[in-house]
Structures are given as C-alpha cells and as structure tokens.
Write a structure and sequence with these properties.
Elements: E1 2-8, H1 10-23, E2 29-37, H2 45-52, E3 58-60, E4 63-65, H3 78-95, E5 99-103, H4 109-114, E6 121-126, H5 129-132, H6 137-148, E7 152-155, H7 158-168, E8 173-174, H8 190-196, E9 204-209, H9 218-225, E10 233-238, H10 244-253, E11 260-264, H11 268-277, E12 280-283, H12 292-299, E13 303-307, E14 323-325, H13 330-341, H14 345-362, H15 365-379
Parallel strand pairs: 1-2, 1-5, 2-3, 2-4, 5-6, 6-7, 7-8, 9-10, 9-12, 10-11, 12-13, 13-14
C-alpha cells in the first residue's frame, strides 16, 4: 500500500522530517507531496533533500504552486487555479497512491474534486486553525464539501473532534499532537545549560514558547509574574509576533524589564535546551487545541502550568504532572506557578517524572503516527490492507 501525505511545505520542518525515521520502518510505501509556492522553492530545498534521504520507502514529490497562497481560493485568477489543480493531478497520476492524507482541512479542496478522476481514499487531518479561525461562508461550505468526500477525518485534539462532529454530523478519529520523545528528553545538564544561557542556578526560570498574539495572552503571564513573591525569577519568552512591542512595554510598566527576556523565534535544538534549563513551562492562552510546545516541554520533564482550554486537560492533570489555571486570570496563574516554584524536592520530582510519562504513553510521535497509518490501512478495501508490525 502507498500512502501520500499532502501538506504545506512548512509541515516538513515542523514534523514530517522528524517522523520520517518511523515511517521508513513501516511496511507501507510513503509519498510526501509538499505544497511549495514557486517563490519559496529555494527556501525549502534543503528540507526536501533531507526528507528524500531519510528513508528508502519515502518518495518526495513536491508540488510547486503558482497561487499566492495555499488555500486554493484564487478566484481572481482562475488560470492560476487551474494550473495548480493540473500540477496536483499530475503528481497523483505519477505516484499512484492508494490513500492520500491531507494536513489542514481546506487544503483538501482540490483532492475532494480530483478524487472523482483518480482512485484513492482521502483522509484529512484537522489541525485547529483550519476549523477554529477560518470561518467565512465560503470556507464553511468548502469544509462541508470536503468532509462529505472524505473516507476518514482525523483531529489533533478531543476538543476539535467535538467541534467538527457537532457542526457536520460526522465521525472523527483523534490523532493527537505529538512529539519525538527521542529528541525532546531530559538532558541532565541544567547547570551547563544555565551557564550557556547566562542564567544563575539560584534563579527560578519560567518559560513560554508561543506566537506573540492576543490569543496567547502573554500579557496575562506578565501580570501573573508580577503577583509572585519577591525572589530571583527569570522569565524567558521564545517567539515573535505583532504583540511583541506592546508586551515589552507592559513588562517595563510592571517593572519586570530586568526579569523578562524576549528571545524571538528559536530553533528546535535551542528549544530543547530551554525546556531543560527551565523550572516551569507556561501556556496562558485563551484558546488552544493541544499545542505541540506543551508536549515537547513535558517530554523534557519541564513542569507545565497551562490554562484549562481546548484539550489541555487531556494531558495536564493538576498536582500529578503540572497544573491547569483559569484563562485570563493572572492571580490564579501566578498561584499555580508558585505551587511549582515553591514545591518540595519530592513533589517536583514526582511531577517531572509524570510529565515525561504522560507524553511517552499517549503523545509519542511514533505511536501516534503508527496508529494513524493503521487506521488508514484498515479503512481500505481488503486487497490493499496491510498489517502493522509493532516493533
């Protein structure tokens, strides 16, 4: 059986490049068909090459788009839209997949149409923003059309499953956000990492990794830090966005400029180090699905304090592996952060151990992707079914 993963090129850097090692050991053949705008071709050359070299059973078939975006609603220039549809059809005809898995629901729009001319089963993976934020009349109608033409629908969180099933009366399988637990792991080198990043061993380090937009509510985190008892506290904020200047001004207004450092966007290895040198990982959002950064941090035994939104409570259990807090409530968030920072050594070790355990048992990329491939395999006609061999 041959399975094609149809995705925005960015997903290669975020996830596919790192799960390729698992796919290479499965009995199926895989094709990764990333959507790349012509203007971004050079940017993704290295990632595409790395993916092509990652396993003998992984074929890379990039689809270069003329469209200025990847949502296929280019109504102002139908010639471009038709050309992109033909490019997609050409790759499908050449690779002949038995099943196509599309990441982001709306990106499956051309596949739902082309399915009438090619023989393949179609699955979509709802990532969150494609359901929660893209809600124009046209987008809603497109999703309804796509769901009707799908054989399987996956969602990255339980909350997302609930939303889709309520709106569209269909069955959804949860294939949760996950991480590579062989990479994101405890490094047992906190002293060295603290020295490398210029942080003292006696400082309590609070970490946030997110886009700096209003939904992420980093302002609530800063106000929460302002409620903490006096002491050596360092707040590290990794990420960038439109709210950065306003947040820097707020930190100054609150008198936190010496305690808060805005790190900008950081790469995967730097995040591994940040998770390992920090005492608390904070997620202060007003809305989420099941964010990957939360899973990465917990895999590194960094104790989370996260707002109880979306499917966060499916992972974070207060007092067991971290704490959940009320969204938009700086006082509650601050109290939960304090509960970690001033916990006994035994309590900290207990939560650290369980944070890692919770991820390895339910949110490990190898296990999650194997289950998804198995679900797809079992949904196909008998003649193309393949038994998954668990190693």
């Amino acid at each position: 059986m041959k399975i094609m993963f149809f995705c925005w090129a960015h997903e290669i850097e975020v996830e596919l490049l790192y799960v390729a090692k698992y796919l290479a050991h499965l009995p199926q053949q895989f094709v990764v068909a990333p959507l790349v705008r012509f203007e971004d071709k050079q940017r993704y050359t290295e990632a595409l090459q790395a993916l092509a070299e990652s396993g003998a059973y992984i074929e890379v078939a990039p689809i270069y788009l003329k469209s200025p975006n990847i949502s296929f609603f280019n109504l102002l220039n139908p010639n471009v839209a038709v050309r992109d549809f033909l490019s997609i059809s050409k790759v499908i005809r050449h690779t002949k997949p038995d099943a196509i898995v599309c990441f982001y629901v709306l990106h499956a729009y051309p596949l739902a149409l082309l399915k009438k001319f090619h023989t393949f089963s179609l699955s979509v993976v709802a990532m969150g923003t494609d359901v929660n934020l893209e809600n124009s009349y046209l987008q809603k109608k497109a999703r309804q059309f796509i769901y009707r033409n799908c054989d399987l629908i996956f969602a990255r969180s339980w909350k997302l499953k609930e939303i889709i099933e309520k709106e569209h009366d269909c069955n959804v399988i949860v294939s949760p956000s996950s991480t590579d637990t062989f990479f994101f792991k405890p490094l047992d080198s906190k002293a060295e990492l603290r020295d490398k990043w210029g942080i003292g061993l006696d400082e309590h380090v609070i970490l946030a990794v997110c886009r700096l937009d209003k939904n992420k509510a980093v302002d609530v985190l800063l106000k929460a830090v302002n409620t903490l008892p006096d002491g050596a506290v360092k707040v590290l904020i990794a990420g960038d966005g439109d709210e950065r200047n306003a947040l820097e001004e707020l930190a100054s207004t609150l008198g936190l400029q010496e305690k808060v450092t805005f790190l900008g966007v950081r790469n995967r290895l730097e995040l591994l180090e940040l998770y390992n040198l920090s005492d608390v990982f904070t997620l202060s959002s007003y809305a989420e699905g099941l964010p990957r950064v939360l899973i990465e941090a917990m895999a590194c035994k960094c104790i989370p304090v996260a707002t109880d939104v979306g499917s966060v409570s499916a992972l974070v259990i207060s007092g067991y592996n971290g704490f959940t807090a009320e969204p938009g409530n700086p006082q509650d968030l601050g109290e939960k952060i304090s509960a970690v920072l001033y916990a006994s050594e035994n309590e900290v070790k207990f939560m650290q151990k369980n944070a890692r355990k919770s991820v390895t048992e339910g949110f490990d990329s190898e296990k999650v992707w194997r289950r998804m491939v198995e679900d797809i395999s079992c949904s196909l006609p008998t003649k193309t079914q393949v038994t998954i061999i668990t190693q």
